[in-house]
Amino acid sequence: MTHPLPSPVLREFLATLRRGDERSGVVTSIENFGVFVDLDGAPEPSVGFIPPPEVSWKWISSCGEVVTMGQRVTAAVLGVDAEMRGQAVLSLIALQPNPWLAWVDQVGSVLQGRVTRLVPFGVFVSVDDGMDGLLHNSELSQLGGDRDIQVGDELTARIAEVDPARRRIRLSLPTEHTAAD
Question: What pTM value is reported for the model?
């Protein structure tokens, strides 16, 4: 599928946008692959585009969990494609504090969490609202083969590693030493 090249007027508008600029507009379409926004002052509709990872810091299954059609949003400009797509790539999360950074200081802490998802390589455990950590199968094997873990089960885990850039928290089972701390 080919797209028509952006008009000269649209290219001129996009040339005024800079990385980090804050722009406002109205959500016009919510798709599996992102959100389209009519930017204020844009000569054409749906010039702004927000990819799913830029919609929320938390894990979401659909962008519609965060934004609604017709909602007014303010986002940061991440980049501009004035030549091919005629779009400004935007980010809602760039204007919010990164909640993953708060977990860096929690490495070594033991917590109780509910299993939210089962995956072939382990289980995800809720560490906060919308934020899960992975407890890998290599850790789960220590519980014994007869332990059947289900979504909703409560587990005690230790925060082993936090990677804010990749939005990941790795969990481990607490040892007797860490559980006593």
Answer: 0.77
